[in-house]
Amino acid sequence: MAIAEEVREQAEPGAARTRRIRPSARLTGRRLLAAIPVLWGVTFLTYVVMNLLPGDAAQELLGANATPAQVHQLEIQLHLNEPFWVRYGGWLGGLLHGDLGTSLASRENVTTILGQRMPVTAELLLYAFAGSIVFAVGLAVLAARKPNGVADRISMVVSMTGLSIAPYVLALVLIYIFAVKLQVFPAIGYTPLTASPGANIRSLTLPAIAIGFPLFSVYTRLLRADIVEQMQREDYIVTARAKGVSPWRVLIRHALPNSLFGLITLVALNLGTLVGAVAIIEPIFSLPGVGAILIQSITDHDVPVVEGIVVVFAVVVVLAGLLADLLYAVLDPRIRYERAAS
Amino acid sequence: MSAPLPELLAPGTEPAVARASRARGRGRARNLRVWLSAGFLIVLVCACFLWPLVYPVPKPTGGSILESGLPPLSPGHIFGTDPVGNDVFSRILYGGRVSFEVGVSVTAIGLVIGGVLGTAAGYWGGAVDTVIMRVLDVLIAFPALVLALAIAEGLGPSEMHVIWALSFFSIPAFGRIARSATLALRGQTFMLAARLSGTSRRRIILRHVVPNIMPQLLTFSLLGIGVAIILEGALSFLGLGIPLPEPSWGSMIAQGQGTLSASPELVLIPSAFLFVTVVALNVLGDALRERWAR
Amino acid sequence: MTGALLDIEDLRVTFTGRGHGREVQAVDGVTYSVYAGQTLAIVGESGSGKTVSCRALMGLLPPTATITGSARFQGIQLIGLSDDRLREHRGANVAMVFQDPARSLNPTMRVGAQIAEAVRAHRTVTKAQAREQAVDLLRQVHIPLPERRCSEYPHQLSGGMRQRVMIAIALACRPRLLIADEATTALDVTTQAQIMELLLELQAELGMALMLISHDLGLAGAYADEVIVMYAGRIVEQAPAAELAGHVRMPYTQALFEAIPRLERPAHAPLQVIGGRPPDPAALPQGCAFEPRCRLAADDCRAAAPPLAEHEPGHRWACWHPQGGAGGMGPPGEKGSRS
């Protein structure tokens, strides 16, 4: 809510603000409210799925050689023998108090585990996103300058490549070229930001490219198409040209801001699907992030950890959606003022 | 895997831009793309399924240690052998079978079930629409890889389980595409005309809606097969897909990881096949979309 | 100075169709001149080529267009000029006002910024100076509270105000020629009159030439000095407005006059329309393009297209069988106040 106010203040210095604050607060509130059942549904579904599958944590922990009695005993210890609803209720209750439970495999506090690993994943994703968006905007603008020109053809080839390559393949190819052959980047391992910023960036570059390059390709394609559509179909572009404005300025100052909406939507929605990408890329590069333990936790039937990760990502997705809404309002004054009028 | 939201990639986001002086040339270039990519895919599919029947190749599993680690272009093993002694070339062929089987099955399931649900939601609207869309929304919001991994892991690795798990992705994706395509169609006048002239609902759907949304769905299918192949590769890469020692491009890549510096070809060859196949599917899908978007 | 401000000679515009190789002849050899301070109206149906010919001058057509012929602005040849050189003229010497102000203004950019941009495209001024000039321009087009309007967005303004903003943008660098392309078509009638009055007032103030492009012959007759009628990419009649009102020659022009609804006609009388449709610009006929719809058509009309010639002083037409004598509009309608 505070962010929205600040944005409006910058955009409309001194303008009457009261009528504009209330609707935006109401809208955001409504969205948050609508997000809660979705969040709940996601966690519930995860719990159901994890429990429907054969096997459980006790079994996994003790291994194949354990006797049924041993397994049963561990189950009691881990409260796995209690009925589904009791367990779920207990976990949900804990969640509402901010307690994500304890890992069944390592007995550590889930919040602690996430606290240690989330920053790594967050940094990786931030790096990947920032890079992919910046380069996508740059390439899309260059390509849209002359549709079917040289830059455009190159952008099409590059984005086709990115769309068609699997992230894990890209990761391995990158490792082979840059780590093994050229020895510029480390193949595995992670250096925290606090230890050495340079090494930190270097350890995250290859994984960020592996995740970011496919994203960059999708974004470039979409943005280029949207920009070209604006340039060719919209009347205000003709007006701008008729004024004698330079072609680059028409492209960047007029067409681009009006073309960003599709991209924003896509970025916000893509965020949730990155759980999967992270789960595959982090182990390849031995990064101590959240993805690295996700698969193992699923295999271990370590429900609290899996749930914890799911909750975090679901919250991020919801926040991303809100941020996207905010960006729409910043970019398009009609949305801002429509809300005020309604 | 980062699968982008279907509608934003669906036909319609890329306007048909034609520079006049080269318009005819581009039409020819597009035809070239269609034929090249389609041709390549047909050749590859035939090779994967028919080659071992026609021309003997070493079996993809059960190789002997004596023959392990051979480099490409060794006699009898054109792509070399893996550390266990299996012939890489035949593993590529059999792995390709898996990729295509999974890719096409998952897409077909999505197309049929998702397409029906989406069309129903788009055509009838109202409560039907809301219910179907909520269900699809939850499926989309769900961290789907978790679901797929859980299913694959819990039920045990097998090709059928992979297909089921991946169908959880494809059904909602097709559902959304079919729904938005149907909605776009519903607004058009000829639909109203059909209703007014007394055409039965069923006939309208079969004769009017379906033929008009099929091009979009088909081009999306081609792109979808590519995505499914990559996802199957991902699951196999994680060891949760096709069980070893059965070959899959994904598991071959995973296996080759260990010897990346020494024998990179074990990673690069299946990667190359995976890449080129998906490129061909994407190029074909794109070219067809352009052609049908007029 | 009797030299023309703008000299157009045998202007032709061809569009090459998408992927079919079809050629669409949008403008088929147009010749006319515009003089400083003059108000010239170009009238025609949609597809007559009136808009295309003007956009061709400014280089605003898509790359699918091939432009040949000559268009000299103050002696400088505009056809074939590179985009960079043309840009020096666009907005500075020749400015355009477009039809739909709702779509012709950038929805995400403040009005003041859009006007200031027009200024800064050709003059080196600071942002503050440009903004000041923007406020001045808004004042000139009679928008109340110009300082406040500058910070507003297009969607916050009414249609008439938006069009005034468009005019302000066009005036930013004191152009010699202002082309109003259906500038009032999207507005309601009262606003139409206001905008036309504004245009004429500004023309007098700044000594600009004004080109009115419209499908409304009544408008042309009321506000222009000289009227050109276009059909199927060619000029079919040209005369001073007063002359045209009294002595129409080309049957098409006559039909246009008759199509204007009038209060004097008896109630419930059917509206006069011109039957048929304009020819397909991709397949222009060999003979007169209007022949299929013309009530005075004869065989020679089908055989060859009549040339445009000055058959009477100051009055050109292209017709094998012009109607003689009086015709036209009858008593002229309300004229705008002119100095």
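qc> The longest helix of chain A spans residues 247-285.
qc> done
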